Structures are given as C-alpha cells and as structure tokens.
Amino acid sequence: MRSRIIGTGSYLPDKILSNRDLEQMVDTTDEWIITRTGISERRIAAPEEYTSTLAFNASERALAMAGISAEDLDLIIVATVTPDFPFPSTACLLQSRLKAVNAVAFDISAACSGFIFGLATADKYIRTGAVKNALVVGAELLSRIVDWPDRNSCLLFGDGSGAAVLQATDADVGIMDAFMKSDGSFWELLYQPAPGSRNPASQKVLDERLNFIRMQGNEVFKLAVRAMEDAANQVLAAGGFSVDDVALFIPHQANRRIIDAIGKRLAVSEEKVYVNIDRYGNTSSASIPIALDEANRAGRIKRDDLLLLDAFGGGLAWGALTIRW
Ligand code: UT7
Questions:
Q1: How far is the CA of 318 from the centre of ligand 1 (A)?
Q2: Which residues line ligand 1 (CB under 6 A)?
Q3: How many domains does the chain have?
Q4: Distance from the CA of 270 to the center of ligand 1, in angstroms?
Q5: Residue where a domain terminates, one of 171, 202, 223
Q6: From the centroid of its chain, how far is CA 164?
Q7: Alpha carbon of 101 to those of 72, 75, 94, 136, 168: distances in Å?
C-alpha cells in the first residue's frame, strides 16, 4: 500500500508587503534584500484571519481537486509553528470548520520541515492500512511572531498555507521514500522564546520582546545547505534514484541563495528547481505545499514524474521525500 496525492490547494492572503514597504520600516534596501535572499515581496494576513483560516482555505481547494468530501477524511495533520492557540490543535479547529467528522486531527511542530514530516507521518498511517484518506496542511501566520524592528529577520518571512489530500493506492505511485532527521542541540539558532512554560506571558516577555522569532541567520544558512543536500541524497538513494530521475525539485523556500547552493551541489538543472520565494518569502511549513500546488495547477507536474521535496528548519529538523506522481 502506498499513498498518492490526489488533490492540492493553497491560499495566500491578499495583502502584499514589498521590499519598498520594508525600507520605510527598518534600515534596509530593496537591493540588499533581493541580492541576499531573492525575496521581492511577501503576503500578510488580514487581522481577522488566523492560521486555521489559512489552513481551511487551502484545504477546501485541495479537497475540491481531490473530488472527495471532508467526511471522507480519516486523518488531518496540520504542520504549524503559529497555531491559533497553544491548545487545542489547529488541526482540531480545521476539522471543525471542514466538518470532517470522521477524521482524527492533530498538529505537528517541525517548523519549516513540518509539511514533509506531516506527509511522512500520514504516509505511514496509510501504509499500515489504518487510514484511507488523509489531509496534510502546512499553514503559517508568521507575521504575528516576526520581530518587525529586527532587520536581520523581518524581511524573510510571510504568511500562507498549502494542503495535500493523500489517498491509499496499491499502484506503484505516490510517496516513494521519506527521510527525516533532527538535531535538537542547535535549538537556539532559531526559536520563539515565549510564550511557553519557560517564559509564560508576562510584562518581562513583552519588554524583552521574547514573543518574537530569534534567529542566527548565518549559522542556519550554513547548516541548511549541508543538511538539505544530505537529505536529498539519502532519500534518492533509498529509492535507487539518481538526480537525473528527478523531474521537479521543490526545496523549502528559505533563501534564494540556499536554494541555488543546494541545486548546484546536487547538480539539478536550474529549470527543474521550483522557486517562488521572490513572491512569498519564507512561509515555513507552508512553502513546499504552496509550491507543489502552484506547480500542479500550472501543469508543471506530469503523470509518472518523480518529485523531490526537501526542507530544513528550526529544531533543527530537516527531511526530504520522493513522490512518483
Ligand atoms: O527556514 C529556515 C529559516 N531561516 C533561514 O533559512 C535563514 C537563513 N539565513 C539567511 O537567509 C541569511 O543569513 C540572512 C538573509 C538572514 C542574512 O544574510 P547574510 O548574507 O547571512 O547576512 P549577514 O547576517 O552576514 O549580514 C551581512 C551584513 C551585516 O553588516 P556588516 O556587519 O557586514 O556591516 C548586517 O548588519 O548585512 C547587514 N544586514 C542588513 N543590511 C541591510 C543584515 N540585515 C540587513 C538588512 N538590510 N535587512
């Protein structure tokens, strides 16, 4: 038994925050941001939108493409680091809005690798026969935890969501192999200090701006390139594939220079690498499913194509996945 993707969907909030807008907010320039990151603009959710709203919009589109109803879902996994609440899970809120009454629902916290970890987890449930239809969502409202006065990090992030519907199949298609890895010893390189059990909500949290993202960009950058290269090689080797077998490479959209460096190390030709970071910035767990949905709807993915998905993020947590379409 394997799991194949039968529907994809994504949602991006309407509001665009351009590099020019950022020039008015912090000491930076459009040119610096484009040269160092490849980002031109990012989306910002409206005040009345929550992560569950973003997740719902992407999920509706994925279910419509899949041609199944929410009631057919047995499992819902939402990958997010910006849940509506610490609890209950955003997946439960999504289940309620979708009226997916037959699904068990839970969140996964694996930062930018969340969608890959979610797909890999759903795939395991499907392979055991416990689940027939699963919905995996990456949804992030990072603009609410970005430290806007911090020019070292504020330019990178954006809001958005993407979803995929998986269905059990006995054909030799769908998710081929998954590779997942974590190294918690580097947790301080990228994290949100509060609110949580170490730093519950308090005046101190607000005064010290502990409720916003802390990132050591340079260190993350170096580790990301090495880890994503390794993850890609591991997952290709697991299936007996070579880079030449890959029709489309969808890396996590963290920084254009990271994407280019990995593409070069893996020797994937440029036209096979999917890039949309210029329009959305880094949307963490949502970046891969947004890219997957865009590529799918644009007709860039053909039946039998081999896809390589590859991500890296806070945790540290990273992973890669191959899919026969
Ligand atoms: O999904 C995983 C999440 N995170 C990542 O993947 C982040 C990975 N890291 C990065 O993308 C990059 O490290 C950044 C884009 C965050 C920074 O780029 P960098 O090339 O590593 O720059 P840097 O931090 O080494 O800074 C270079 C210079 C510094 O000035 P000095 O010390 O050389 O005079 C910074 O102060 O650029 C300065 N700088 C800026 N200048 C204009 C830093 N941020 C800005 C800015 N505008 N926004």
A1: 21
A2: 28, 32, 36-37, 112, 151-152, 155-156, 190, 215, 217-218, 220-221, 224, 254-255, 282, 313
A3: 2
A4: 24
A5: 171
A6: 12
A7: 9, 10, 11, 16, 19
Q: Which of 112, 145, 171 is the endpoint of a domain?
A: 171
**Hey, whose CA ends up nearest to atom 2 of ligand 1?**
313
Beta-carbon contacts of 98 under 8 Å, excluding residues fewer than 6 positions away, are: 56, 59, 60, 63, 70, 73, 76
Categorize the per-residue pLDDT at 310 as very low, low, confident or very high, splitting at 50, 70 and 90.
Answer: very high
Asked whether residue 149 falls in the same domain as residue 180, the answer is no
Active-site amino acid positions: 112, 252, 282
Say how many Å lie between the CA of residue 178 and the centre of ligand 1.
31
Q: Do both 25 and 135 map to the same domain? A: yes
Read off the tokens for 203.
């005046």
Q: What is the pLDDT of residues 126-145, one digit of tens each?
A: 999 999 999 999 999 999 99
Range of the domain at 208: 176-324
The string of pLDDT tens digits covering residues 264-284 is 999 999 999 999 999 999 999
